[in-house]
Design goal:
- This protein is an alpha/beta fold.
- It folds into 2 domains: 13-187, Rossmann fold, CATH 3.40.50.1260; 195-403, Rossmann fold (3-Layer(aba) Sandwich).
- It is built from 13 helices and 17 strands.
- Helix 10 links the parallel strand 15 (332-336) and strand 16 (368-371).
- The longest helix is centred in the middle third of the chain and has 24 residues, at 131-154.
- Bound molecules: adenosine monophosphate.
Length: 416
């Protein structure tokens, strides 16, 4: 495996899988260009070394060629952020000539990969397709996928994967294509930074290591929690899942969100944590509301003494103080999932306090802090602490799978 920092790009064509799946408004204006902005250093590195770049990405979830999902809409934004004009191939499978004619320093953007079913390798079927048709389509798309990948690979001398957001998918452009470049495949800077950040918490964490796992349900976080039990010293559980744990031990949780079918799982987690010497922290008190609404009546009560008709929507002040203290004394902090319904001002104090505690631990205690997962990323941005933590992951689903301990196909394809 080569490194983007030492690879000789001079005179070489690099095909780069980027994640340009950016949001567009009804006039096709890019409303958040973060993903494009973040990929620029990798592209510039190739160009600065005398190479040329062929960019490939998906946009949205088209079911075939769909004008709305054309990557031509974002050309203006790439040019603006790159500070140079780029070329466009309006079909990712017939770009041979444009790729061949690409000169050092030039950039060619391929049209949306997902205009072809072969990118994901999943057949697109009519709803009334018979079982026989389904089986035949499955075989066909897998067969055609080989040609699809081969064509993309034929455009370039080397392959760079810099799309962390799709690294958990074994798609043509994220994994299969790597086989065509056994000695000329590498990660771009986004991928390198994400991998390093995950390594810092999951393999090389400095102790004490505290993970804060929140969100609405235990069921969606169970694999992450189980994986973390082998690594952390402290596990702070927040958000709606708190109440499944409390109810499982016989606490009164009123009408708080609860997964009764997860009681055994919750009990097992607590038992395993004890065996492994991991301290579990559950909110001692909660902000409860008489309805799930921003203008609900609220009060603060012990989390295991919530009256009927009331539901816990945020952690209370005692919990905030305790959690902040644990975080302040940590050397590694991982945050996934909010402590409450942070989207409503009345129930955002807990998540805001956690964001601040993580920022303080980073600044004052030299802790390594990783914010991984969609809603915690939204929290850290919303509360203004984005530049005060060590790393904010760019990939929702991909980061979740890393925290679950899975090896992502996009990473494995480069490393194998
Ligand atoms: P998840 O997608 O599982 O990470 O959950 C994130 C969602 O959990 C956010 O939209 C929060 O509003 C929600 N959430 C957090 N705490 C609670 C709670 N106590 N009750 C209901 N929903 C919650």
């Amino acid at each position: 495996m080569k490194s983007i920092d030492t690879y000789k790009f001079e005179g070489k064509k690099a095909i780069i899988r980027v994640d340009f799946n950016v949001p567009l408004d009804e006039n096709f204006v890019v409303t958040d260009a973060t993903r494009i902005k973040m990929a620029i250093p990798t592209i510039k590195k190739v160009l600065a070394e005398g190479g040329s770049a062929i960019l490939m990405s998906h946009l949205g979830r088209p079911k075939g060629v769909t004008a709305k999902f054309s990557l031509k809409h974002i050309i203006y934004k790439i040019e603006e952020l790159l500070g140079a004009k780029i070329k466009f191939a309006d079909d990712c499978q017939t770009a041979d000539k444009q790729a061949q004619e690409l000169k050092p320093g030039e950039v060619l953007l391929l049209e949306n990969l997902r205009f072809y079913a072969e990118e994901e390798g999943k057949p697109r079927l009519a709803e009334d397709a018979t079982e026989t048709e389904k089986a035949a389509a499955k075989v066909a798309v897998k067969t055609n996928q080989k040609e699809f990948v081969k064509k993309l690979a034929s455009y370039a001398d080397c392959y760079i994967n810099d799309a962390f957001g799709t690294a958990h998918r074994a798609h043509a452009s994220t994994a299969l294509i790597a086989d065509y470049f056994p000695a000329d495949k590498m990660f771009g800077y986004i991928m390198l930074n994400e991998i390093k950040a995950v390594d810092n918490v999951m393999r090389n964490s400095e102790k004490p290591f505290t993970a804060i796992v929140g969100g609405s349900k235990v069921s969606t976080k169970i694999t992450i929690i189980e994986n973390l039990l082998d690594k952390v010293d402290n596990l702070i559980l927040g958000g709606g899942m708190t109440f499944t744990f409390i109810a499982a031990e016989g606490g009164k949780i009123g009408s708080s969100i609860c997964e009764t079918e997860m009681f055994d799982v919750a009990k097992t987690i607590v038992k395993k944590a004890k065996e492994k010497g991991v301290k579990i922290f559950l909110a001692e008190d909660s902000v409860v509301a008489d309805k799930f609404a921003p203008d609900a009546n609220t009060k603060i009560v012990d989390s295991d003494k919530i009256e009927d008709g009331w539901q816990g929507l945020d952690i209370g002040p005692k919990a905030i103080a305790q959690f902040a203290d644990v975080i302040a004394n940590s050397k590694t902090v991982l945050w996934n999932g909010p402590a409450g319904v942070f989207e409503m001002e009345a129930f955002s104090a807990g998540s805001k306090a956690i964001a601040k505690a993580i920022a303080d631990a980073t600044t004052n205690n030299g802790a390594f802090s990783l914010i991984g997962g969609g809603d915690s990323v939204a929290c850290i941005n919303q509360f203004g602490y984005a530049d005060k933590v060590c790393y904010i992951s760019t990939g929702g689903g991909a980061m979740l799978e890393c925290l679950e301990g899975k090896v992502l196909p996009g990473i494995a394809a480069i490393q194998k």
